[in-house]
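S1.2 Input.
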Amino acid sequence: MAKGLTFIIALAWAGASHAAHIQRLSFGNTRAGVPVVRTVLRNDLGMSVAAIDFGATLTAIEIPDRSGRLANVVLSRPDIAAYETNQRRYGAVVGRYAGRIADARFTLDGVVYRLEAGRNNMTLHGGSQGYDKRLWSSTTLSDRRSVGMRYTLYSPAGDQGFPGGLTLTVTYRLMRRSNTLQLEYEARADAPTVINITNHAFFNLAGAGAATIADHRVWIPAERYAEVDARKAPTGALLPVGGTVLDFRTPRRVGDVLRLDDPLLASSGGFDHSLVLANNAKRSARLAGWIEDPASGRRMTVL
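S1.3 Output.
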């Protein structure tokens, strides 16, 4: 079985031309003494993207503001030791199943599969030793339109309790002549399984060292959100966003929403929700939302 998915992020600015290139650098060794490689991509406009093969983790996305000043807009950790102990999974690929599975089990084809139970008897992002804690194999790529890095991981049947051996490939592709980062996922399983892969990056378009994203403006055309219970486990219900704090169909300032006294925010201490986009029958890239920082002039558009 094979499944492919492409996720595109475009960060907007205009600037002078620079030479596109790829660098491979040491990022130290794991506690087990295994070397970790940091790969840096740079395009013709000066945007750069860096990732390490531990967790296929994005460690930096540097892009200028309207005045040409560079800043890294993703939260990161200073060294491999910090990534090995980090529980927030900054910029990493999480799996085999991103999100929460209630009661640490699921049924597939009549068979019950038991997983690692965490807080509130939930399985979060596959478990404590998920794909974000693995060393992936890595290669680089270069063609007329882009430079990139490709990460591959094999997860055997029974890994984290999930059925089926799985080969997962994640590609980060930086376009040479536009500030576009393209994320490509491909998974091949040798038996029926469940899978839900994502990248766990945290963004601050003012720069990763800036205080908050309160002044960021967000637009998301989702008409529904996934309801959760008191443990944050999905109930299966998809409810309308209309009349709730999760309605971003009209652009809203993040800080204005977070100030509201609303049960949907109180249960998570802010946003920790899944917004549901309309079904994309054509399976082609289309606009899923944008977020902008008016002060720096940076805007991130997601397809």
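S1.4 Remarks. The chain has a mean pLDDT of 92.
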